Amino acid sequence: MYRQGDILILQVTAESVPARLEAAPRDARGRLVLALGEATGHAHAVPGPGTLLLSRDSRLPEFLHLPDGGRLVHEEHATISLPKGWFRVVRQREYVPGAYHRYVAD
Amino acid sequence: MSTPVLHPRLAAHLADAAAEWDLAAHATGPADRSAAEEGVRAAYHAAGLREPRQIIWFASPAQAATAAVVLSGDAEARAAVRGFGLLPPALLDLNAGPLVRDPVRSAPWEQVRAQAASALTPTAWAAAWEFVGGGFWPQVNRLVGEIRRGIGRLAADQTRPARVRTATSREPHEPTDPVEGLLRRATLDAVLGQHDAPWLAFFDGLARASLIDLAPLDGVLRVSREAGWWWPFEHVVLICERPAELHRDDLGRLHHAVGPALAFPDGFGLHAWHGMPVPAEFGATMADLSPAAIRRQDNAELRRVMLEHYGLDRYLRESGADAVHKDDTGVLWKADLADDEPLTMVEVVNSTPEPDGTYRTYFLRVPPWVTTAREGVAWTFGMQAAQYQPHQQT
User: Fold this and answer.
1) Domain of life, per the record (chain A) (predicted)?
2) Among A36, B227, B254, B284, which residue has the fewest nearby CB atoms (within 10 Å)?
């Protein structure tokens, strides 16, 4: 379990990943963007090889596959080295009275 | 800063060079255009190239990057940026030839770097670099990164339909604008002019100590003293003015309460609060903060900045909040609010320090039934308290 700011990364088995999820496109810099700060434009991103899959429900990045391992970078947080394998990406949320939740949008 | 492996005489030269180049890196105001152009021509001569036929000045790197896309791009790229209306029409039909960044900048740079590598032991290199660039390079590099991001966003704003542009959130999987990619790549082709200063300070310090010969980089150096980013093509050079305004905090981060922290003469600029990019109107809202206004801010990063400005102690006191639990994940706060359910927040601290060694503190609202800090932080990630055990945090 790795945490970089408002993103939590959990290693999971390949079998636990649902089939036929849509892959997220890379950004203008060729990176996989796990989450993007709304105000800052700063991103939790993986610059190297791999695949990021979108959740069917929320259309947000949910699973990350790094066949050779990789690095998770962010402008304001130290880089995290990830081993090879499958990961679930959890974005931090906040409680909003009367609503279910909202994601932390930094 | 003391570094035992550095000879005091070398340290003195490096310090002088660093002080001078720090001024160049953060210089504002109109360039001495003829001095910069002489530098450009000297760099072409040193590379064994003919002088460029035209040197075209731009008011900002955003404009010049757009022009660089036009001059180096395919027909589709030209068509995409043509609609921006930023460029003089004559530029669209110019034959600039290929980019000659390699012979003009990279080759002499590598030559000087190789001299430095043979003049210094690896330990002395590390010590000298730390002495000159240790604090200087990250600052300038961050500035360069923010300018690149600003240029990319400009493209997105120019080409995205208005309904998307004004949406409150940008999801990371939103289709990437192809022009944004083109512009970002163009920014990587630029010679950074004044923003090459940290490395130039390092080389210049070594040259002042007679350890290396800077002659191969003479032209590049002369441009860097006078101007901003530049794009060397075979027949044409695109070159930028320096910013008209640059405001920084005491740690050297972009910061300005009223107006942009960085502004170029054409209006391209960046708004920032202690290094964090913020919306243009954000500075003005900081003059009139209240605990309720802070709670209403949806964006956790902006809310953190508001809280810091307002004062954490003051905010908690005025909210009537009490610390009810503390563990290694953070602190749990509770406050009773009039006409609302209780306010329950976890206070969490970034694991990566700021340049001054302090850590950013965030308050995240969690459900009122939460009783421990770990339970609260775990909830923000959709987990039970016992499950939440990160083994690395940054």
Assistant:
1) Bacteria
2) B284
